Amino acid sequence: MNRVYLHNNESIKKIVIKYLIGLLPLVLYGFYKNGILLYRDDLVSFVDMFNVFYLLIISILLLLITNFFFKKKIFENMSLVLVCTVPLFMPPSINLLVYAISLFLSLIIINVLPKKINYNKIAFVILFILIIINMFEPLSYLNSAEKLNIYALNFFDLICGRTIGGIASSNILLGIIVLFYYAFFNNYKKVIAFSSLLAFVIIMILINNFDINELIASNAILALILIAPDTISTPAKFQSMVIYGLILGILTGLLTSFISFNIGVFIAILICSFTTPILVKLTEKW
Question: Does residue 86 sit in helix, strand or coil?
């Protein structure tokens, strides 16, 4: 996310701030679900209640450090959105030290990789961190309450965020609101978001025999809204965006169902971003 999709008179700083405003409700809900509720039920300490904010602070500090090393300014590109999006999809009980080290390494990697390589940076960073985490302990997206299975939840609770997911990526209702908020931005590729969501929903319903719970219980929907419509690693032409979104949604559904429930979407986004140049070439004369 290093430059802006379409011609836009707004400065990068204003665009970044608008995107960060969209993330704020998700962060606050993550604090409520994986902080306040768990502290209320004596499942985490007062200090651990603020983990989502620790992740954000660590992310921003590491961005400032790497920007200093590589002589970049904070609002030179969309990297601030990147480091504020990544924490949302981290496991609720993540080790902060492991997160800091792996994020720092991933930021260095994306700064030294050749710019000609086309890939979704957010998906790459998230996958890199999750792989490192899994090297130290089995990866789990369950928070303390979900491990004990102490809550009796209904369908409305689940779509409002009480399902299993990242520390701030489980509230599908808020995610849809953020989607319509972002849809008013000229540089947000809403065509990719809507087409990938449509394909994902259809695939998940068919694979899981119309079990809606399987559809909403993963990182996929929020990732397709926040990460998939990257301004750089995706096509810019309408027809290409539709095809890209449909392929991404189908691949996400398959990988989520058969490979990894919470990581499949990031693998799908990264794979599709690698294929963007091929898709653009195939559809350039349409």
Answer: helix
Supply the Cα-derived Rg of the chain in whole angstroms: 18
User: pTM (2 decimals)?
Assistant: 0.92
- What is the C-alpha to C-alpha distance for residues 116 and 107, in angstroms, rounded to an integer? 17
Structure confidence by residue, pLDDT tens digits, 213-245: 777 766 899 999 999 999 899 999 999 999 999
Q: Please, what is the angle between helix 96-112 and helix 121-136, to 10°?
A: 140
Helix (H, G, I), strand (E, B) or coil at 8: coil
CA distances from 256 to 18, 132, 204, 206, 262 (A): 30, 20, 9, 13, 7
| Pure H helices in the chain | 12-31, 37-40, 51-69, 79-85, 96-112, 121-136, 144-148, 155-157, 172-182, 190-207, 212-216, 220-226, 238-258, 264-283
Among 220, 229, 222, residue whose Cα is nearest residue 250: 220
Distance CA 35, CA 45 (A): 9
Please state the length of the chain: 286
Delimit the domains of the chain by residue range. 12-283
Dihedral sign computed on CA atoms, order 179, 142, 205, 128: positive
CA distances from 146 to 149, 164, 170, 217 (A): 5, 8, 13, 13
Report the alpha-carbon distance of residue 206 to residue 211 in Å, rounded.
9
Which tokens belong to 137?
């302990």
CA atoms within 13 A on the CB side of 100: 12
Q: Considering the chain, what percentage of its residues have pLDDT values greater than 70? A: 94
d(C-alpha 51, C-alpha 96), whole Å: 8
The CA distance from 285 to 237, in Å, is 11
Alpha-carbon span 141 to 143, nearest angstrom: 6
